[in-house]
Amino acid sequence: KGLVEKGQRDRRTNFYTLTRRGRREIEARREEILEEGEAAREELVEEAQDRIDEAVELAIDRFEEAVNAQT
Predict the structure, then answer these.
(1) Contacts of residue 26, Cβ cutoff 8 Å, sequence gap at least 6
(2) Do 19 and 1 contact (CB within 8 A), yes or no?
(3) Cα 18 versus chain centre, distance
(4) The model's pTM
(5) In DSSP terms, which residues pair with 9 in a beta bridge?
(6) What is the rounded distance in angstroms from the CA atom of residue 71 to the CA atom of residue 29?
(7) Which residues of 17-35 are buried (b: 16+ CB within 10 A; e: fewer)?
(8) What is the pLDDT of residues 2-60, one digit of tens each?
């Protein structure tokens, strides 16, 4: 409670505004979401780098096998 204030324009029309607390709560949640997104992005980057490293190692192994087969 205390996140939104209700006002009245006329007898049939209401309006709503965020309180300072409401703004703080929204900003705090926004920051949490951004942090979660950044953590997920970092995890994806690490996984991609691992896959790249594995592919490079495999390519080097196959190249060495090909060179050794020729000698």
Answers:
(1) 18
(2) no
(3) 26
(4) 0.59
(5) none
(6) 64
(7) eeeeeeeeeeeeeeeeeee
(8) 999 999 999 999 999 999 999 999 999 999 999 999 999 999 999 999 999 999 999 99
